Amino acid sequence: MDHATASSFLGISGVVWFWALTVVGVGGVVFSLSRRFSLLRMGRAEDRFDRFGERFKHVLVYAFGQKKMFDDPFAGLYHLLIFYGFLVVSIRTVTMVFEGLFAGLELPLLDTGIGHAYLFSKDIFEALVLLGLVFAVWRRGVQRKGRVIQSSGAWIVIGLIAILMLTDLASEGARIAAGAIDGNYLPVSALFASLLAGFSGDVLQAVYSWTWWIHLFTLYVFANELPYSKHFHVYTSIFNVFFAKLDAPGKLPSMDLENVDENTRFGISTITDFTWKQMLDMYTCTECGRCREFCPTTLTDKPLQPVLFLKSVRNQLYKEQQELISSPGDGAPGSQHELVPVVVDPEVIWACTTCRWCERACPLDISYVDKIVEMRQNLVLEKAEFPEEAQPAFRGYEVNGNPWQLPAEERGKWAEGLDIPLASEAGGDFEYLFFVGSPGSYDDHGKKVSRALAKILKAAGVKFAILGPEEASTGDAARRLGNEYLFQTLAMQNVEVMNGYGVKKIVTNCPHAFNTLAHEYPDFNGNYEVVHGTQLVADLVRQGRIELTQAVDLDLAFHDPCYLGRTNGEYDAPRFLLNTIPGLKVREAELSRDRSMCCGAGGGRMWLEEDLGRRINQLRFDQLRATGTQEVAVACPYCFSMLSDAQREGGLEDAQTVDVIELVARALEA
Ligand code: SF4
Ligand code: SF4
User: Fold this and answer.
1) How many whole angstroms from 298 Cα to the centroid of ligand 1?
2) Which of 94, 165, 158 is nearest to 125 (CA)?
3) Phi, psi of 21 (to 5 degrees)
4) How far does the centroid of ligand 1 lie from the alpha carbon of residue 530, in Å?
5) What digits encode the pLDDT tens for the residues 54-75?
6) Does the N-terminal peptide bond of residue 403 adopt cis geometry, omega within 30 degrees of 0?
7) Which residue, 192, 210, 225, sits at the end of a domain?
8) Is the pTM value of this prediction over 0.85?
9) Could you give the CA distance from residue 152 to residue 562 in angstroms, rounded to a whole number?
């Protein structure tokens, strides 16, 4: 026996059988993939064919580098072993297929130094894959990590991969034992050979031919099973990572409201309203459950668990596959089956806080928030079906430009007597526009923080102005509650005012306003350099333009706002300020920085009731309190509201929640 040894046992009839097996095996895969591809083409258009260089880099880091997998080092390790092992072994598998198809075909490369080096590494990788499978069995069967969705399919795939590895090692072992090949460059197969030592040539030939056939038969079974299981990601994951969203994570796509007619579909109502990339996300989910591990709605027993939501829409997609792809050619009507409430409970759609933990966690770059917000858009704009508590907020935005429903002319009242110029009076003589936002304008505590930031900016000699009654809410919550019309109206109104005053730089103390102004207003011709209050103030301290000299005697835990931290990557500025204030002790919660848990207010949830499960703010406060203090520092007005409520609800009337900017202002006082 040698490397092209298939010819020595297949014979003519064996080759014919192998051709038949290959035609069925490969044909089945092509058939399944072509149907899945046709289905994908039923999705809405979405341009993900830009920025190729960035996309290749993204694939290198997240697909081949497996960057996010190592958030869970144990799972990351065994997945890495299986992933790379599979890549290396697949080269040998392809050569085996060619041996079978063209019996007698010599593969001289395998008998060269390069071939031996490859076979050596292939042998080692096969052992590593088996080791990875042992870890996977332990993780699924013994450790049973709660986030993972248990399924029989996972066990089948583990079994199939094990068969693939073991049969290849056994077939090589038989050849070594028969003296047909040298075992020096196949160290693991040589171990199998030692088990076969002493058997006759006929037995070794039989072992070789049986393991060869089982290996290739298993390969075709495996390849055909993938498109029908959560392991479809073996085919799709690299594409999914390649076509990932490269825009700022917090930027929602803008709906075209200029060209609306009677056929316009607002948001997502049926399965074919998802874009092709959103469908590719569905194909790619491996049900690892990382997305639900620290999802606030999952942790507080609400109906939304991201992976289960995705599974339900994926099941619907597959259920409708036959009907959809047999629809006649161009102009096919798409799905006629509404997703809400039959496939997806409305409570699932309204529960999301848009905190993006799920997207941060997903190793395959699957997105959730865009899908959920687009489903809200359909409910709001087409069906007028939304939680009734959202109605007053929508009305407030419409009538007064703020969800508090307070008069627009009172927006600048917090600044009375502080000698803060309005942009209309400043004649362009300001560096920063202080975009105050609705909570900073109307909420009692928010107003205190606005005054604190104004005081700091003045102390540092920063020239700034406010819009006063000309400012309207950015519309962040309206947009995330699905009211795109309202959002765009507010955005265009604000942009017109700001562009009229030649605004170039904006500082805001609200992370939601920060995200929307920085990433979403450019779609409406609003292009500004936007900084969060903590970022600007941290720079002022670093430049020596202000000094924090007064001790603040507090011991507190810092809560990262989702829209400043996970969504916009700013973790250090607020920490720098807290650590610079004399006398202040800062504690870190176990879930902090990019693993921080949401306070429950994002995604417009600030304006909705929370009737199901435990309250998210209370769970978050408990996590902060577990650091050993009851005092909390925040950098977001909504987080302030949720966490101070949690303190009160917990009977801790004396405990404080304070904004970082307030603390800086206190430390300035001389
Ligand atoms: S965005 Fe947050 S709340 Fe919404 S599904 Fe993801 S983790 Fe859960
Ligand atoms: S969406 Fe991502 S993180 Fe969630 S289960 Fe699927 S693959 Fe895992």
Assistant:
1) 8
2) 165
3) -60, -40
4) 25
5) 999 999 999 999 999 999 888 8
6) no
7) 225
8) yes
9) 36
